[in-house]
Design goal:
Pathway (chain A): Carbohydrate degradation; pentose phosphate pathway; D-ribulose 5-phosphate from D-glucose 6-phosphate (oxidative stage): step 1/3
Radius of gyration of chain B: 25 Å
Distance between the termini of chain A: 48 Å
Strand order of the largest sheet of chain B: 16-15-14-13-7-12-11-8-18
Distance between the termini of chain B: 46 Å
Radius of gyration of chain A: 27 Å
Number of strands of chain A: 31
Protein name (chain A): Glucose-6-phosphate 1-dehydrogenase
Structural class of chain B: alpha/beta
Oligomer: heterodimer
Helix content of chain B: 25-40%
Strand content of chain B: 15-25%
Number of helices of chain B: 18
Shape of chain A: globular
GO molecular function (chain A): glucose-6-phosphate dehydrogenase activity; NADP binding
GO cellular component, one term (chain A): chloroplast stroma
Enzyme class (chain A): oxidoreductase
Largest sheet of chain B: 9 strands, mixed
Number of helices of chain A: 14
Structural class of chain A: alpha+beta
Chain lengths: ~650, ~600
Amino acid sequence: MIRQRIPTNGRDHFITSASGCHTRYITSGPRNGLIANRSLDRSTIFAFCFGSLDKEDILFTQNSFFTLCSLSLSLSNPTQILAMTILRFYQRPSSLSIAFSSRHEWSFSGSSELVTLTTRRNQCWRFSPLKSSNGSPLAGASWKDDGKEMSVPKVPDIGSQLAENTVSITVVGASGDLAKKKIFPALFALYYEDYLPQHFTVFGYARSKLTDEELRHTISTTLTCRVDKRENCSDKMEQFLRRCFYHSGQYDSEVDFCELDNKLKEKEDGKLANRLFYLSIPPNIFVDVVRGASRSASSPNGWTRFIVEKPFGRDSESSSELTRCLKMYLIEEQIFRIDHYLGKELVENLSVLRFANLVFEPLWSRNYIRNVQLIFSEDFGTEGRGGYFDHYGIIRDIMQNHLLQILALFAMETPVGLDGEDIRNEKVKVLRSMRVLKLDDVVVGQYKGHTKGGKSFPAYTDDPTVPKGSLTPTFAAASLFIDNARWDGVPFLMKAGKALHRRGAEIRVQFRHVPGNLYKRKFGTDLDKATNELVIRVQPNEAIYLKINNKVPGLSMRLDSSNLNLLYSERYPREIPDAYERLLLDAIEGERRLFIRSDELDAAWAIFSPLLRELEEKKVVPELYPYGSRGPVGAHYLAAKYNVRWGDLSDSS
Amino acid sequence: MAVSFPKCPSSSLPPLQTRNRAWSSPLSAPHQVGDSSKWALLEATKRCHLSVSSATNGGSAVAPVEPSKKVQDSGTKTTPTDHSTKVENGIRPTVFSSNEFQDLKTGPDNSGRESTVSITVVGASGDLAKKKIFPALFALYYEGFLPKHFTIFGYARSKMTDAELREMVSRTLNCRIDQRENCDAKMEEFLKRCFYHSGQYDSEAHFVELDKKLKQHEGSRISNRLYYLSIPPNIFLDVVKCTSLAASSENGWTRVIVEKPFGRDAESSAALTRGLKQYLHEDQIFRIDHYLGKELVENLSVLRFSNLVFEPLWSRQYIRNVQIIFSEDFGTEGRGGYFDSYGIIRDIMQNHLLQIVALFAMETPTSLEAEDIRNEKVKVLRSMKTLEIDDVVIGQYKSHTRGGVVYPGYTDDKTVPNDSLTPTFAAAALFINNARWDGVPFLMKAGKALHTKRAEIRVQFRHVPGNLYKKCFGTDLDRATNELVIRVQPDEAIYLKINNKIPGLGMRLDRSNLNLHYAARYSKEIPCAYERLLLDAIEGERRLFIRSDELDAAWALFTPLLKELEEKHIAPELYPYGSRGPVGAHYLAAKYNVRWGDLGAEH
C-alpha cells in the first residue's frame, strides 16, 4: 500500500488508512485542474481541464468501469476553465493513470484508501486537502447523473487554489561543482522553457558565507541559454536570479535549517509549499542534512522531497546502512535517488523503441540476440581530481549504477504500465535474476602515462590527489548474465574506462547469425562478423542505427553491411535537454520512473559487492594501458571467452 | 584467385557468384583457362568462380557441388513441369540439345579453344534496341563484363550498312557517369564489333546468311549465340523458328531473350509457350522482366535472407499488409497503339508487380540457384487467390489543365481509339492462401499520368499488441505502426519507419525513419536493369528470368478478371492527368482496412 503523506497544521503525519467517509483533495495547476473526490461508497473523480475530453483522451491502466460526462462552464475566472469532465467509477480503482489530452499528462495512483496525484511534464504540481471533508456539498454547479444529484465543489475555490502553490528548491552544497555546472543551469533551463511553476524559489545552502548577490553572481557566470532559443535570455536570467537566494549554515545543524525554514516560509508567503532538497554534497553528510532538513525545514502543507546523487554507499552493507538512515527521516516516496544516465534522451527512448514498435520486441530475447554491449568511455583521466574517484573506482562510479541501470531497462520484461512503480518493479526483477559477478568475468585496468606527438599525458598515479600505489581501476570490463527465460546464456558485456581514445556511451545489440544463411558464401569464414547489430548511441551525437546486410549496387553480388540510420542532430535540430533538467522536473512532478528505488539499489549492490570485496582483498593489480589508448587488451580476451567481439573497436563501428 | 578449379560445368553450379573476376581481368580468364586446359568454356560461363570462393573457404562452409555428379545432372535439371513439356515435345532438333550437354561434349574436345559470344539483336532498328539494349551492351563491354571476343549483330528488315548501324548505335551510347575515361576509345572498339544484317523475320534463307556471317566472325572459336527478340509478339515465333533452324550455334549454346508481352491471357500465353517450345527448350528461353533486374528488387532477397532481423517478421503474424506501387508521371504521349491493346494490368501488374510479390512472399528457397528460386516463386503464384472484379479498381486518365498547360486525356492520344476503355490505372487486392500469408492483403497499384514517378514496396506492420504508449498515438493505432519501405525507383532507398520519442522533456512520440539512402551511401551509379539481365543471359543465370510455369501461374491469376473486364465493358473511373489517381483506390484499400502508404501526409 502506498502511504500518502498528508501534512496538516504544520505537523507531519502519515495516514495509513482513510478515516471518515469522504476524503476530498483538490489538486490544481495553473492550467489544469484535477479534483479527486474519493468517497468510500463510490469513487468519483472530477477533472477540470482546458478543452473538453473524450474517451480517447483517457487511458486507464486497469479496467475500471466509468462514465464520462462533460459540462462546459464559462467562468469569469482568470484560470479560464473551459470544460469539466467527470469520471465516475462504479468500482473502486486500486490504481489508474489518466492522460488528459496529448499535451498534458496526469497520473493518478494509489491504494484503495489513499491517493497520490501526480502530473508529468506540466507545471508544478500542487496538492492540498480541502477543509470540508465531511462530504457535504460545497456550493456550486450540480447536475444529474444516473438520476442522482451530484455535487461539484465551488468553482472559485479552485481558482484560489490555483494561484497558491509554490515550490522551493534548495540546493544543499550550492558552492560545489555539480551545483554550479549542472543544477543551477538545469533549473534555469526549466525556468526558461516554462516548466517551473509560476511561483518558485531557489535556495542555495552551504557552509561558506555568501550573500544572495554573491550566489547570484556565481550562478550567472555559469548559466547558459540553450542554443535554439536565445531571445530574452538576459531578461529571463534576470528574473530567474531574482528568485535565487542563499543561506549559509552547517550541514549538521538543525538550528541552521530552522533558519532556512523561516526564510523559505517568508518567500512562500502563505502559499501551499512544496519543497525539494537537492543534496549535492559528499555522502558522509547525507544523513546529517536529511535529518536537519526533514525535521526542521519540511513543508508544513505540501510535499518535501530529497534528491540524492551517487555514491550510494561503497557496497551492499554501506548502501543499506545509508538507506536505513535515510528512512529514519524519510519515507521511500520522498527519496529521489538520481542516476543522471537515466535522464539521457536515448535511454528514455530505449523503452519507446522497444515497446512502441512492433519490429523490435519479437527480436528481444535469447532467440535472436547473441550479446549486448554497454560501453562507456571517457577520453580524459582524473586530471588532478582523483581524490573522490580513487576511493570508489570505475566499477562503483560507472558500472554498478549507470551501466547496470541501462541494462535493467534494456532487459526488463514489459511492464504493466509506464508508471514509475511498474517500471521499477520490472527492473528489480531483472537485477535479481542476474548472476553475481565473479572475478573471472572481470578485467580491470588503470591508465599509465603516454607520450604522443611530443605531448605527454599523465598516468593515473601521477595525479597528485591519488596515492602512488593506488590499485583503483580506471577501466573495467565485465560480462554479466541474466538467468531468466528471456536472457539465459546471453552475455551482457559492460565496459567503462577513463583516458581512452574516445568519449562515448552506447548500447550495442549484436544479433545472431541468420540460420541457414543463403548468402553464407558472401560472408567469409566468420558468419558472426556479418550479423545485424542495433546501436543506440547515447552520447555524443545521439543516434540509432541498425546494421543490415545488403547488396552493393552493381552487376556483381557483393554484400555489404550498411546502416539504417537515424541521426538525431539531422532529424531533430533542437538541442536535446540535459539529463539534469529532465530529472529535476520529474522530481518536482513526483514522477519516479527514472529514480532508483531502495530495493533496486540493494539488488544492484548484491551483484557487484562480492567482486568489489575480492578485488580489494586480493589486491588485484589492474592491467596498465596507455593514456588515450583503446584500453587493456584483456577486455578482448574476456569478450572472446564468451564468443563476443567488441562492436566499438571493430573497423566499421 | 584460384581460377583453376578444374571442373565447372557451365550452369550447373549455384548461381550466386560474384562477377568481380570475370572478363574484366585480363590476367584471369583466358590465360588461366588455357592453363587449366579442360575448360575453355569456363570463359563463357563464369560460374566457376562460384566454386572458387567456396574452395578458398576450405570448402567447409558450403557443401561444394560434386562436379562430376553435376555434370550428369545438369542436362536434366529441370522442374517437374519442364520435364513434362520436354517429354511432350519428344524429339527436338539435335542442334538444340541442352546447353549443358553441349558444353560437356565440346568442352574437353575444344580444350584450349577460345569461346566467343555473338549477340544478335533482332529488331535492331526499334526503340528498345536503340535506347536500352545497345547502351546496356556497351556498358557491359566498358566495364569488362563481356567476353574477350564477342560480336554484336543487328538484324532487321530495313536496309542498312554496318556503318549506318554503327552511326545509329553511337548516337545513343552513353558512358556511365562514374567512369568517363577512355570512353571514346572504348566506344570505337565496341562499334568495331557491331555489324548489321538485313533480312525478313520469317525467312530462313536470310537467317542462313546471318549464320554465315556469324561464323565468319566467330572463326574457329566455340560459338555461343544470344538472340534478343526486340520485335512485336506476333513475329516471335517466326524469328524463333528461323534462328533455331538456321542460325543456332553448332558447338556452343543458343539462347533467346524474349520481352513481354507474353500473350494477352492464359490461352494466348500458353500458345506462345507451346510455339516457342517447338523450336527451343525451356532453358534456352529467357523471358525478361526488366523489373527483376532493378537493384532493389535484387536486394529484396538479400535483405530477407541475409539479415536476422527481418525474417522473423515476414509473415501474417507481424505484417498487416504489403503494397506494391508503380506510378508514372506521363501518359502514352502519342504511342498508345501497343498499350491500348494491353492496358495497365497486362503491361505492369501481371508481370512486374506480380513478380515482385512472388519474390517478396516466397518461402526460403533451398539455395540461390535459379531453379530453386523459381520453384518457390511458382509455389507462391499458385497459392494465390484468383483475382476477382470486386477486388480491382480501374481508371483512365482524362485531360487536365494546370497552370495554363493542357495535359491530354488518354483518348486524346491519336493512336488510341476514341472510345477506348483500356485502363491506364489499376489497383488490386491479392491474397496468398498459404500458411504464411493467409489474410494479408497484397495491394497493387499501377498507373500512368499520375502525380509522381515511383516504384516502391511498402510493408505495413501490425500495431504493437498491448502498446504501453497507446495514449501517445491518438485514436488510430494502425496509423502509427512500423513500415518498411523499399523504394525501387527513383532515388533508391530502404527505410524503416519507427516510433521514437521526440527529444525533450515531454513524452511525445514521433515517427522517424531508419534510413538507407542509396545515393548517399553508394556513390557509384546503379547499373541499368538491362545490363544485369543481358549479362545473366550470357552467363546462363536464369534466376531473374521467368520460367514457363511461372508465366502460366501468373496468367491464371489475372485471366478471368481480364476477360470479365472486357466482356462486361467495364468503364474505367476517370482521373485527371497528373492527379493521384481515381479515389476508388482508397475505397478498395479501405475494404481491407488498409491505407495507401504513398498517399499519406508523410511518406
